[in-house]
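Quick note —
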Amino acid sequence: MNILVCIKQVPGSNNVEVDPVTGVLKRSGVQSKINPYDLYAIETALSLAENKGGRVECITMGPPQAKAIITEAVCMGAECGTVLTDRKFAGADVLATAYTLSQGIKKCGEYDIIICGKQTTDGDTAQVGAELSEYLGIPNVSNVLSVDEVKDGKAYLTASLDDRIVKLNVKLPCLISVDGDINTPRLPSYKVKKTIGDDKVKFLTFEDFDDQNPDNYGLSGSATQVERIFPPEKNSEKQNITGNAAEQTEQLFGILAAKKMI
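Predicted structure written out below.
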């Protein structure tokens, strides 16, 4: 069984600047890490491979330094990984990101199960997994709580809906998105880290893809454009209320009424 995990490098801090012209995050010089939800996806893939037999690979889209998260995934137990990197991919929204990933996956091979984390901590859209499955023409299940069985060409899953937990099966190949309740990710192996070679990471660029239309990637291929993005404003203003309980209650009521909150 071949399993592919889609992972992303995200800022390791909330203190990230925004490009005032393009409206995208300035990632250069910012400490990065694997998207936390993707760690659960990696663990799900590794557990499946250990129980059912198989091979786990990872793929990411980003600058060349995204190699670091592929290396970390290999240290956790993945066989290898691929970085999709090109200036033409920069500024992609979720749709262009999903399309770029689909093009990269088609060049990497065929997979029985593709696993994504629920969402990323820098975008929080939770849309890439579903859109990627559409581009690949395979079924998708989101909010997967457990992979109960894989047999006879089907994956048997437990997933969460808004108001209920459901059991379902889906034909392979498929794509699933997992939540943080599915497992506890293992730690990377320091021993593997000391011996890992460059052959574990492959790079693909725009020139490697079948679709050579640059308008389908990056900002040009994005269906949405950011009009304005800004950090939340910090307000340290405060007001002290004194007096006994009745007086404090009356003052608080007056403040809330003046602000039209009640």
